[in-house]
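Exercise 7. Given the components listed, write out the predicted structure of the assembled complex. Treat all entries as one system.
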Amino acid sequence: MFRYLLSGLLWGLLLSGARAQTLDVLPPTGKWVTDLADFFSPTEEQLLTRKLRTIADTSAVQIVVVTLPSLEGADIAEYAIELGQKWGVGREPYDSGIVILIARKERRIFIATGQGLEDVLPDVVVGRIIREVITPAFRQGRYYEGVSRAIDMIMGYVGGVYSPQEAVRSSPGVDKDTFSLLFVLGIILVFLLIDWLSHRRKARKRKSYGVAYQATGSEVWEGVPPVIIFGGGMGHHGRRHVPDDVEDTWSDVFVGGGGDFGGGGAGGSW
Amino acid sequence: MRSKGALATLVLLLVVLFAGCAGVRTYNRLVEADEAVKEAWANLQSAYQRRADLIPNLVETVRGAAAFEQETLREVIEARARATQINLTVDDLANPEKVRQFQEAQQQLSGALSRLLVTVERYPQLQSIEAFRDLMVQLEGTENRINVARQRYNEAVRRYNLLVRRFPGNIIARLTGFEPRVPFEAEAGAERAPRVQFN
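Answer.
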């Protein structure tokens, strides 16, 4: 028993020395299409960006395309999954991200699916899309067409899963912002509530003293908890972090929504 | 004199109170880390299970499609049987011997599978079967999930073990029976199932 404990301690020591060995992936570029290996022409890159931006605007799904000159020995699946996790592709509550990673030197592609999409977009389906759409197109050098059509097919599977309403509700940046706002509001509300309660007690006192208690215009609110007064007007808060003047173009910038990746997806080579 | 005694009592009381609070806080953090390990372990276990569930299907497809080397297939079946026999519960995760056994069995299965996949490459007719290709994709998917789940398990264990071994966690852990957990070794590169290339 003691031996186990001791060796357990040794294990622990060993592990704490060496941090979990994770892959060093490309840091977030803030772009929907990061074409480091020049697979696409500038126009094609723009078209793809627009397509991916529209998808993110109208659904909860986030898709990024990344091309690399070389994987430098890394496993493409591991790389794509790690990149998706690090960039936080996909909205956090749904884990609805997809990473399309293409490596030029290795002639390999991997499509990693976020944890929340594994059921609607099983590995087998991704594998078929790669075999039937991407590989044939890539062999003829039609990279844009292959990727674009693959994205269309993917959206056929995942497009209807999360409605745009849900997408808006779960926009990036909502959580912390709204949370702190709600916290501050909560404190204010507590004070208001205390205030209101003490008022009511006073009012009751007045009543018990036999003073006629008539609700005049302003006093109507005395019977209503302040929550209701405060109810409206905060629906839009936290939607974006971007100043108003760049509101039209904000989503040209890719901002990760914090989606998780659990190892789903499939790959292939051409 | 009396006021000095009262002061000392007060200070002592404060120290005890502070220590108590710190102790409770540490204990709660230990519980949290422990839960995280359990959750990560459940995920890792289900990833292994997913692979085990896939194998009978794979074996059937391969056997049906080719006059295949029975030896390689039998190896996979036996390795799967051994791997599924060893049941590692959450309590066993503090036991290096049991964790090692479990891991060895899983690694043997990985090895047998990768040998099967190498042999399979010699049978082009097998690779033209759509069902077989789908199976290969699923197999790769389970290997990827196992890798991810193992990394996250190890990370959870690392956090937990740090708490258990560091002051003041080590005192609380000893008092309340938290033991260090054993991480999983990463599988050597050669043990990983190779990716089948379809051309």
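Discussion: Chain B touches chain A through 37 residues (CB under 8 Å). The radius of gyration of chain B is 25 Å.
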